[in-house]
Amino acid sequence: MNVFIVYAHPSANSLNGALKDYAVQRLQAAGHSVQVSDLYAMEWKPALEAGEVAGHAVLAEQEKLLWADVVIFQFPLWWFSMPAIMKGWVERVFTHGFAYGIGEHSELRWGDRYGEGTLAGKRAMLMVTAGGWESHYGPRGINGAVADLLFPIHHGILYYPGMDVLPPFLLYRSDRMDDARFAAACAALGKRLDALATTVPIPFRRQNYGDYDIPAMTLKVDIAPGVVGFGAHLA
Ligand SMILES: Cc1cc2nc3c(=O)[nH]c(=O)nc-3n(C[C@H](O)[C@H](O)[C@H](O)COP(=O)(O)O)c2cc1C
Predict the structure, then answer these.
(1) Would you say the CB of residue 78 lies under 6 angstroms from ligand 1?
(2) Residue 210: inside a domain, yes or no?
(3) Which of the chain's ends, N or C, has fewer CB atoms near its CB within 10 Å?
(4) Per-run averaged pLDDT (10 residues), the chain, 235 residues
């Protein structure tokens, strides 16, 4: 398979740098082709300009997305989300007519998005390190459930242009790594990488297949009655 890693960390000598190197080596050893966009090393310009027209840098990233069978977004959790440089990559690369604003609008369809679109058929996975403990991100954890925190990325950024979203690879207590924990993390990551083609995606509901009223884009009353919030969009 073709695997595209979008990677955001300012230091090559970081935990993330080491995990990225491990992932590339593991994927290549399994026979996959790998491309990495190392956003800091590329000095990626994050700010979208007024009236920006996609230039060479943006088109090159779109080409990598079209080339990929699997797209991995790797980052340390910073203020409960992706680092700004990666958000800026999304804002500039996911252009109108590429990642949004495509497909017909009618009483039956509301464009090609949420499971349909340019990137349909591809798989995406987040690879995230977090300083907090797993329990802090549990269903009743103080930081909020990790599935809720990641919903805007999973559903709003990856599923929106059509990608199937795999459960994330998460590494907690990332500021407390020693050799044994790093070895265990690589082993766990390796299993996930080996299973990229077969892992069951998060079962987000598709937009144009009967679950939502169009054009209100609200779940029909008989679908998951009484369920509200992010979880309602899981089939
Ligand atoms: C600016 C910044 C914001 C952070 N925000 C969070 C956060 O919201 N939640 C969390 O669990 N850890 C947070 N951390 C801790 C990082 O996730 C942690 O340092 C990182 O995963 C360690 O990996 P690294 O050594 O590759 O940087 C933050 C760290 C920084 C520098």
Answers:
(1) yes
(2) no
(3) C
(4) 98 98 98 98 98 97 98 98 98 98 91 97 98 98 98 98 98 96 98 98 97 96 95 97
Residue with tokens 């459930």: 145
Q: What is the pLDDT of residue 107?
A: 86
Q: If you search the block for the tokens 């790998």, which residue do you land on?
A: 34
CB 131 less than 6 A from any atom of ligand 1 = yes
Q: Is residue 155 part of a domain?
A: yes
Q: How many CB atoms lie within 10 A of CB 26?
A: 18
What are the DSSP calls for 62-127, one per residue? HHHHHH-SEEEEEEE-BTTB--HHHHHHHHHHS-BTTTBS-S-BSSS-B-S-SS-STTTT-EEEEE
Domain encompassing residue 135 = 2-201
Which of 86, 126, 174 has most ligand 1 atoms within 8 Å of its beta carbon, as the pocket-test mutant? 174
> How many domains is the chain partitioned into structurally?
1
Q: What's the confidence (pLDDT) of residue 43? A: 98
Q: Is residue 216 part of a domain?
A: no
Pocket residue to mutate for ligand 1, from 77, 81, 181, most atoms within 8 A of Cβ: 77
In a domain, 212, yes or no: no
**CATH number of the structural domain spanning residue 189:** 3.40.50.360
